[in-house]
User: Which sequence fits this backbone?
């Protein structure tokens, strides 16, 4: 049977706690480092000449990999079939990165609107 000294027990307990906290952080969606976001932005903007602008790039941990969200702006008069092909091929390209689990690409014809999914709209009003 294994027996630990007090110091070894404390060290072992600290390591287990530290590892548990790191695992919990990776499961709850920590944002990707700036270098990863830059890589994704570069990939998106260079993907197709029809992409006018990359509006938003987000990447969150999902276990040891990332969930990625990219919002791109395409010409307003671009046919749906072409827009869909651009978005789908960008999704596939992002998902081919070894650090990405899943990618979601949102297509829009302008980027000057309010955010679609604001947490503030879901919070109860602080005024009676």
Assistant:
């Amino acid at each position: 049977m294994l027996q630990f000294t007090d110091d070894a027990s404390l060290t072992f307990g600290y390591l287990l706690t530290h590892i548990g906290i790191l695992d919990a952080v990776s499961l709850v969606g920590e944002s990707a480092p700036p270098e990863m976001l830059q890589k994704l932005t570069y990939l998106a903007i260079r993907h197709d000449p029809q992409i006018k602008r990359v509006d938003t790039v987000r990447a969150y941990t999902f276990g040891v990999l990332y969930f990625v969200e990219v919002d791109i702006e395409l010409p307003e008069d671009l046919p749906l079939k072409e827009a869909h092909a651009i978005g789908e091929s960008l999704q596939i390209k992002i998902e081919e990165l070894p650090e990405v689990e899943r990618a979601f690409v949102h297509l829009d014809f302008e980027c000057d609107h309010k955010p679609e999914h604001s947490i503030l709209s879901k919070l109860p009003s602080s005024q009676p």
In short: The longest helix spans residues 6-28. The beta strands are 53-62, 65-73, 100-108. The chain has a mean pLDDT of 82.
